[in-house]
Amino acid sequence: MRKQLFFLLTLIVVLSGCSGVLDKRNTLSVSDLTDREQGLLSIYSDNMFVYDYHVDKDFKEVTIWVEKYEAGKFMDEPVSSIITPVEAEGTIMFSMQRPLVEYDKNVLNLAVTRKDGSGSVQNIDEQPVGFQEMASTSSSFPGELRPLEEENVLATICFSKESNGMSSMTSEFYEDPEGSIEKLGQYDLVYVLKIQFNK
């Protein structure tokens, strides 16, 4: 599974590298995947987020982690995290596989690729009771991020037993996660993907 995911991520990096290079530095954006690339990735994951970053030489590494909240309460420690070196440009990927009925765990994958290699981690997370019956929605940051050396929220995957009227996380949460923390209580379960580049 992990080898297949690496192969797909490497393929995306190679293919997207042909589309030109951004002039701006210190930016992170949602990858512009083709329908074919999205189709390939959807085979291996229910929720997949892919980003391209471009940073100057002052940045040495990136820290990425996934926080879990149940009924708005932070569950003590990140359920997945990675610290890995960065180069001028690269790709970041986060995926979560929603388990089959007989399974009682989620599989979370974090990966960072760059020209000289990649770093990745795979973690298993226990499901809360009633998870299989929950509806889900996901979203990614809608616009500008704060400076990359600050903590940023990249994506959320939200689960709820009440599917009627369920919507994805609002843009206010991405802009001011600390000031909008109460929004997490609107869902039974939320995974929050965060990132910080380090000099």
Care to give the gist of this entry?
This protein has one domain. The protein is built from 3 helices and 11 strands. About 9% of the residues have low confidence.
State Rg: 16 Å
Main beta sheet strand tally, sense and closure: 6 strands, antiparallel
How many domain units?
1
Q: Give me the number of helical elements.
A: 3
Helix content: 10-25%
List the uncertain runs: 5-22
Along the chain, the helix and strand elements come as: HEHEEEEEEEEEHE
Mean pLDDT: 84
Q: Specify the oligomeric state.
A: single chain
Quick one: how many beta strands? 11
For the record, give the distance between the C-alpha atoms at the N and C termini, rounded to a whole number.
33 Å
Shape call: globular
> Would you tell me the structural class of the helices and strands?
alpha+beta
Please state roughly what percent of the residues sit in beta strands, choosing from under 5%, 5-15%, 15-25%, 25-35%, 35-45% or over 45%: 35-45%
